Amino acid sequence: MTSTRIPVKGERPYDVVIGTGVLAELPGLLSERVRTVAVVRPAGLPEIARPVCEALTSAGYAVVELPVPDGEHAKSVEVAAELWSAFGRYGVTRSDAVVGVGGGATTDLAGFAAATWLRGVEVVQVPTTLLGMVDAAVGGKTGINTAEGKNLVGAFYPPAGVLCDLATLASVPRDDYVAGLAEVIKGGFIADPTILLLVEDDPEGARLPEGRHTRALIERKIQVKADVVGADLRESGVREILNYGHTLAHAIERVENYHMRHGEAVAVGMVYAAELSRLAGHASAALVERTRAILDAVGLPTAYRGDAWPDLRDHMRVDKKNRGETRRFVILDDVARVTRLEDPPEELLEAAFREVAR
Ligand SMILES: NC(=O)c1ccc[n+]([C@@H]2O[C@H](COP(=O)([O-])OP(=O)(O)OC[C@H]3O[C@@H](n4cnc5c(N)ncnc54)[C@H](O)[C@@H]3O)[C@@H](O)[C@H]2O)c1
Ligand SMILES: O=C(O)C(=O)C[C@@H](O)[C@H](O)[C@H](O)COP(=O)(O)O
Ligand SMILES: [Zn+2]
């Protein structure tokens, strides 16, 4: 199958290229002036970066490979500082570029380091997980965690391009792949009901990179993200819909010390958001049941430890959607009808949690 290009509009437009064996298209995503490319990749996965480095070297770039800790361990100020030092040592200038290769954690870090080095050098993202392709690498949200919570330091910094080589998905561990499905399913609930129909039609296939509907699911979710971030890069309005399920999800990740996958936390967070939507009088019980059923069908979690509520409640207070004393939640009226809930009473927040507690 040939490659697909999904344009992302905005003040700095770019393309997301999707296909199998499309690495030859990488140099075309870099600006002509680029000479040195710093490739940021997980330390334990040299094999996923090798073809990327080879493609760049044969196209004439000077390539430096910068291994960083695996997964969420990469998203710290210490690791960002190591990258800044390496960029300095290897002479990464404003006419050079960073390429992030790996899952969403790696591309979030690479994007943040690129956004802050010399106040911004070009970055191209090469996501190698499902979640990275359909969500993290697209849209320009970059960031790291702090002791207080998830992604609390970062920048809105669009990449110059995103290259999704579907061949890389073959080696992604099954649980990491399935975690990425949570963000695909989120796209269905907030904007594209066909995504839900495709997953419901073949939930077993949805769990596989070679599934019948996999390519369609990936392209449709990327289209959802492209449409939203193209209209509102800095999350001053519509972009908030992409945060559906994330208020509780980020609190769970923090409570778990980031030992739970982001996508798994988002799955629980979406059940919570659906229950909140229902209890606030916005969504039907059928929508909540559909949420549970589709997540169950692909093997994602739909419940969380009941005794964690006091900690979760405290962590939700630092959510980025809050404005001063006003707490804000993204909820649904129905599929593809998203709204906001402002300052719900504490009892409502707890009652919704009781519905997901085990
Ligand atoms: N910036 C955004 O808009 C945005 C959106 C969604 C999620 N995120 C962030 O993305 C992160 C989650 O991303 P993720 O689910 O990709 O997790 P991850 O980056 O931790 O990757 C999951 C695991 O897969 C490994 N891996 C990556 N590619 C592989 C491959 N091709 N073969 C084998 N193993 C591979 C990784 O090293 C890691 O161990 C979270 O930090 C989340 O906050 C950001
Ligand atoms: O792109 C967005 O906007 C999102 O909210 C997408 C989320 O899936 C993603 O996890 C994002 O990193 C969360 O952003 P945050 O601002 O809540 O940290
Ligand atoms: Zn997310």
UniProtKB/TrEMBL annotation:
Enzyme class name: lyase
Biological-process GO terms, alphabetical: amino acid biosynthetic process; aromatic amino acid family biosynthetic process; chorismate biosynthetic process
SUPFAM superfamilies reported for this sequence: Dehydroquinate synthase-like
Cofactor note: Binds 1 divalent metal cation per subunit. Can use either Co(2+) or Zn(2+).
UniProt keyword Mitochondrion present: no
Entry keyword set: Amino-acid biosynthesis, Aromatic amino acid biosynthesis, Cobalt, Cytoplasm, Lyase, Metal-binding, NAD, Nucleotide-binding, Zinc
Enzyme Commission number, as recorded: 4.2.3.4
Binding positions for NAD(+) per the UniProt entry: 70-75, 104-108, 128-129, 141, 150
Residue ranges of domain 3-dehydroquinate synthase C-terminal in the record: 180-322
Annotated residues for binding of Zn(2+): E183, H246, H262
Location of the 3-dehydroquinate synthase N-terminal domain: 67-177
InterPro entries xref list: Dehydroquinate_synthase, DHQ_synth_AroB, DHQ_synth_fam, DHQS/DOIS_N, DHQS_C
A GO MF term: nucleotide binding
Listed pathway(s): Metabolic intermediate biosynthesis; chorismate biosynthesis; chorismate from D-erythrose 4-phosphate and phosphoenolpyruvate: step 2/7
Subcellular localization(s) per the UniProt record: Cytoplasm
Catalytic activity: 7-phospho-2-dehydro-3-deoxy-D-arabino-heptonate = 3-dehydroquinate + phosphate
Pfam families the UniProt entry points to: DHQ_synthase (PF01761), DHQS_C (PF24621)
Cofactor: Co(2+); Zn(2+); NAD(+)
GO cellular component terms attached to this protein's record: cytoplasm
Function: Catalyzes the conversion of 3-deoxy-D-arabino-heptulosonate 7-phosphate (DAHP) to dehydroquinate (DHQ).
PANTHER family (UniProt xref): 3-DEHYDROQUINATE SYNTHASE (PTHR43622), 3-DEHYDROQUINATE SYNTHASE, CHLOROPLASTIC (PTHR43622:SF7)
Family: Belongs to the sugar phosphate cyclases superfamily. Dehydroquinate synthase family.
NCBIfam families reported in the protein's UniProt record: aroB
Record-given protein name: 3-dehydroquinate synthase
Species, as recorded: Sphaerisporangium siamense
